[in-house]
């Protein structure tokens, strides 16, 4: 590949990798810092739960003291704003905090441990089981030797904080995907406009000299009485080929007209023209189904085959063989066109890259041939890809087209 183009391509790949790595580092840093905050807040809430449990124990066990001190203890207890449950040593629920009042069946605010509590046992069992899964219990020993256990849930704010970075990163990723899709679409649209403009301008510029060449050929035939001269006939064929090329360029950007043709016949006609203009050391062979048909635009389809054959010829350093095999896939109503060469092969890492504009392995290549080929296959509502390739042994490109023949299942 041209060193400048190779450097540019590799540089683009490196930038993509570094941008992805930078995004991954930002995501990791965000998750790490959020996890740090969650741990800090979780520890703070556990401390609050311990204070609430101790203040509750003090209310239940304290002797008669100053009313101001009692008010202070109550204020400390009521400052907790997370769901919590206290159980005795036998696992019975004896006190709770911030549970659903509609499911605890409490008719008034109860502050005494000796009050006759009425509650929904199923609701409490579910909440207690949930708290046990959420955190390890806080042990709260009493002066009597009994030990209470305090269970609690994270606050709503802490639970939201746990999922916030994932939600935030998901939204950012969604925004970036949408933005990338939009900008990529705009970029491709601009590229298409440039391509179409260049193609139509090239067709326009070729028109005048082609017409002149046809006129000069006719003058030469008349002047030298050479109506059947083989050299002039070949020159005329080449000039007509130039007309076809100009017609191809003029059709880029327009929706091509597709008509049904026998694929084998179309390929054979082009190969007969192409092979006399290549080295005699390279042989051509067309095999496979001769009757299958597809909807084609002949000038554009010939261009597809021409680009692939030129690549195959360039891949063969001295002598070799190019085989075109046409396969009718009856089950899927598709046509497989495999173009194989005995050239130098393509590395697997380049299988997708070769269809990108500007990618080439030739020193003087523009890297547009296979990109145009893929575009023209798309016009035919088909697919093209590297089926297989082995270094120093050869490459096979596969084109998939929709068959124009329909097969009815056999009635038994």
TrEMBL record:
Protein keywords: ATP-binding, Kinase, Membrane, Nucleotide-binding, Phosphoprotein, Transferase, Transmembrane, Transmembrane helix, Two-component regulatory system
Statement: the UniProt record of this protein carries the keyword Transferase: yes
GO molecular function list: kinase activity
Catalytic activity annotation: ATP + protein L-histidine = ADP + protein N-phospho-L-histidine
Entry EC no(s): 2.7.13.3
Protein's UniProt keywords contain Transmembrane helix: yes
Protein name: histidine kinase
Lineage summary: Bacteria, Pseudomonadati, Bacteroidota, Sphingobacteriia, Sphingobacteriales
């Amino acid at each position: 590949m041209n060193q400048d183009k190779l450097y540019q391509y590799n540089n683009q790949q490196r930038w993509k990798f570094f941008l992805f790595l930078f995004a991954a580092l930002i995501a990791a840093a965000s998750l790490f810092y959020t996890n740090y905050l969650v741990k800090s807040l979780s520890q703070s809430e556990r401390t609050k739960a311990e204070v609430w449990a101790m203040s509750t124990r003090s209310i239940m066990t304290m002797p008669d003291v100053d009313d101001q001190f009692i008010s202070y203890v109550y204020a400390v207890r009521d400052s907790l704003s997370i769901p919590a449950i206290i159980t005795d040593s036998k696992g019975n629920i004896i006190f709770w905090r911030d549970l659903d009042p509609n499911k605890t069946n409490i008719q008034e605010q109860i502050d005494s441990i000796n009050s006759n509590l009425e509650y929904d046992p199923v609701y409490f069992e579910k909440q207690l089981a949930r708290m046990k899964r959420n955190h390890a219990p806080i042990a709260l020993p009493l002066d009597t030797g009994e030990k209470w256990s305090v269970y609690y849930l994270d606050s709503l704010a802490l639970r939201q904080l746990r999922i916030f970075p994932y939600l935030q990163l998901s939204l950012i990723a969604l925004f970036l995907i949408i933005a990338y899709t939009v900008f990529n679409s705009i970029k491709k649209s601009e590229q298409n406009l440039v391509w179409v403009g260049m193609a139509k301008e090239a067709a326009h510029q070729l028109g005048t000299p082609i017409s002149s060449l046809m006129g000069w050929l006719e003058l030469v035939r008349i002047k030298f009485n050479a109506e059947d001269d083989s050299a002039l006939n070949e020159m005329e064929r080449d000039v007509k080929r130039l007309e076809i090329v100009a017609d191809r360029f003029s059709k880029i950007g327009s929706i091509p007209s597709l008509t049904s043709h026998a694929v084998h016949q179309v390929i054979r006609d082009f190969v007969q023209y192409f092979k006399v203009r290549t080295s005699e050391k390279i042989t051509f062979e067309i095999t496979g189904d001769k009757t299958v048909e597809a909807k084609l635009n002949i000038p554009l389809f010939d261009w597809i085959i021409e680009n692939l054959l030129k690549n195959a010829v360039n891949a063969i350093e001295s002598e070799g063989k190019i085989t075109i095999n046409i396969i009718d896939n009856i089950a899927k109503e598709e046509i497989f066109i495999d173009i194989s060469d005995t050239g130098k092969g393509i590395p697997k890492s380049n299988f997708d890259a070769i269809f990108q504009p500007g990618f080439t392995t030739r020193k003087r290549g523009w890297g547009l041939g296979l990109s145009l080929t893929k575009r023209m296959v798309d016009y035919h509502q088909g697919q093209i890809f590297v089926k297989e390739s082995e270094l120093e042994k050869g490459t096979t490109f596969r084109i998939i087209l929709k068959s124009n023949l329909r097969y009815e299942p056999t009635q038994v």
